[in-house]
Amino acid sequence: MKPAHDNQARPSDYGLQSTDYGLRTTEMRSLPDNPATLLRNLAACCAARGVSAWLVGGAARDLALGLMPHDLDVTVDANGLELARQFADMIDASFVPLKDERGAGRVVTRSIDAATGARLVLDLVQLQAPTLEEDLRLRDFTINALALPIADQADQAAAFIDPCGGLPDIAARRLRPCSPASLPNDPLRILRAVRFGAALGFAVTPELDQAIRQYAPRITHPAAERVRDELLKLLHLPNAAPWLRYLDATRVLTQIFPELEQNQLNIDASIKFDAS
To answer: What pLDDT sits at residue 129?
Structure first.
């Protein structure tokens, strides 16, 4: 009998499935009128100010998957807070300063997302490194380290900027960290990895699995509210159960909920007894 909590267990042992997505490596799916118009207006605003801008993060990832992004994340080589304020005034939208030190601002438009019924949201964030490529390498996982130039949004042949190999990872349906420092720099990425796996049907690579196990004790370092929010996002997903079992197997859950440790010890003891 194979112990259910063997430290050598892998995600596939817990019923984690992959989904076959069609990948668009150099072409982006046409956006609906409202987001497309928003990005065209932003491109004009940036061009008038000599600012370069790129669609990044989940929005770029979703386009690569052929999915429709609901929130638009844009990185700029200027102060994102001030640019967001100016752009909101330009299009008669609401401006929300984001509480961080990254030079970031949010634009909440009057346009409604047809899929969610919510207002379209655009986040503008200043580059966190001297170049875009260096900025992308600081991100959590390769699938989230893609960028598309905003100026090319009208061009359906716009090429993704992909310094970390995120497009091949999307094609292979796998989660891989951008660097060995990804999880120790922000241990909350352990839960983000699991959430992305559940949401997208992607598999955890062996290197990410090893890092999750190694840095599991650090999951208590982020603020409790951030950990709670990630867990709630995971629990809202229909495929959460096998990933919760994976968090249990990697000892992440017992770090968050120490009272589970005794139950796990009892289970381990029972498994060893049955195995004998």
So the answer is: 95
